[in-house]
Amino acid sequence: MLFAQHEMIKNTQKYTDAKNGVSEYYKAFSNESRLLLKCLSATCATIFLFISILYASAVLRIPEETNKSRDWIEHTDQILLQTQSLLSALTDVETGQRGYLLTHDRNYLAPFESGRIQSRKLIDSVSHLTADNPLQQARVAELSTLVERKIAETSDTIALAEQGNPDGALQRVRSNGGQQIMDGIRRVVAAMIEEENRLVGIRRIEAQRADSAMETFLFGSGIGLLAMLVIVLGIWGYSLKRTTEISRANEERQQRLLAVLDMATAHIRDRDGAIRFWSTGCRDLYGYDATEAVGRCSHDLLATVFPLPQAEIEALLESDGTWRGELRQRTKSGREVLVATHWTLLRATADQPDVVMETDVDVTEMRRRTAELRSANQELDAFAYAVAHDLRAPLRAMRGFSQALIEDYGEKFEDEAKLYLGQIDQAGRHMGELVDGMLALSRSVRGEMSPEDIDLSALARRIAVEISQAEPSRQVDWQIQPDLKAWGAPDMIELVVRNLLENAWKYTSRTPKPEIRFFAERQADTLFFCVSDNGAGFDMAHSDRLFKPFQRLHRQDEFPGTGIGLAAAQRIVKRHGGMIDARAAPGKGATFRFSLQLSSGTEVHP
């Protein structure tokens, strides 16, 4: 709609400009020529009317097409939200199950029961939303089966515990059957999300093509309208004075502009802020009728709070002809609203300012929902941090008692019993690593940032020395580019560089002549800091799993790890406004690169 409005405004200006020269041109025509042109005027007027009708019908179709695209996107958003809610409900089921099995506290059965009920409701909801897609329906059927299996598995373990067999219940949990079902559920959900994103992509492309075709049509129609109007005005304006032509053209221009603006939340004011036009959209948003608003200063009427000094905004408007931002305003009822605003400076002539057109969109609710989502994510991170932190004490106790049994009573145990104790200790150590990883992942998004200049080259050299000293038997060719500096939180950036260098060290452990490089490269206007090695590498077909927590591309017996480091690195880099990616090939090494804000006064030549 805004595009159509803008085109109509531009075409109206073109019509006015065209009228300025037609009168003088037709003075040279003979009486015979004028008679012929009068006959043509009726034809031109008919063609002009026909093109105008087509143009108007095309403009009226724009909101309909826009609504269709918005409906499809909202439909996909609902499916994505329902599938994510399903995973959350199943997480509640698992939390209730494990909490009850570990503590025998029946309060844990409340989230278990609610999660089980919610899971089935969400399955029905997703099935209804995807009723038009046979492929998604098949996945919903598979998902429903897996969810029922998961509910049955958790219910069985709880039943065993209630029947006085807690060891059997815990043994059932340790069998990893439930985890395999959850992995299947996540796989199906991921496939459904991928399919919905693919469909949205197709629909967006189709919408863009339709918009492009519509824009082409509008532009062509505008040109046609302009040509017809020039001819008609030339014929009809022969006997009119130049001042009359300009006055009538300006009046037509103003009426067209006001008619279009009345459909939007827009108003027109002079450079002093006095309102000259107040649309019905403004009336609906702010509560003031045109009789109450016209003539008053818009900033005073709406108690506008600017994000910048008003003088600075006016200077930008004067130099650029437009300004976009967000304003806090107050309605007639006293309600505070946040609007995304677009100011356009409309000039009467090439160098003299005329009026300012302000178009506003109420984004109060959207910002509120964004804040709620951010708060929910923060609470989730805080919960993960608290859970991981509280797991440390029982883990230490479990490992400590296992070691004590081996050391104090090892001679009394049979070999199989010793093996079991060793496996308990090994599992406890691995779980401790996972807990440490969860804490690191949580800190990567929870910690306060105190950015400063960082010498990345010196940081990389120090970490390289520490890694080499921990395993002095290995000989690695370290190549660190000097004078690489950036701006960021030192402790967080050290974690990023350390994770990448330690990964390079780990994945070159089986390479005859290992090489690890830390350097910079520029792509377009972005400078990337890179860690490259000639180690095991990986298949880029699985690169989408690289930065997901607890996701790994190699087996634990090949290259041990938790799958936390890259996820934490990505979150830290994103918090700094940068990006991180990777390129690799199996057996040919890998290169990870990330971007940061450059240190002030630093110029890097990779």
From TrEMBL:
UniProt xrefs under InterPro entries: BphY/WalK/GraS-like, CHASE3, HATPase_C_sf, HATPase_dom, His_kinase_dom, HisK_dim/P_dom, HisK_dim/P_sf, PAS
PROSITE patterns the record matches: HIS_KIN (PS50109), PAS (PS50112)
Highest taxon, organism lineage: Bacteria
Keyword field contains Transferase: yes
A Pfam entry, by short name: CHASE3
GO MF terms held by the record: phosphorelay response regulator activity; phosphorelay sensor kinase activity; protein kinase activator activity
Domain named Histidine kinase: residues: 386-600
Enzyme class at the top of the EC tree: transferase
GO cellular component, one term: membrane
Protein name as annotated: histidine kinase
Organism expressing this protein natively: Telmatospirillum siberiense
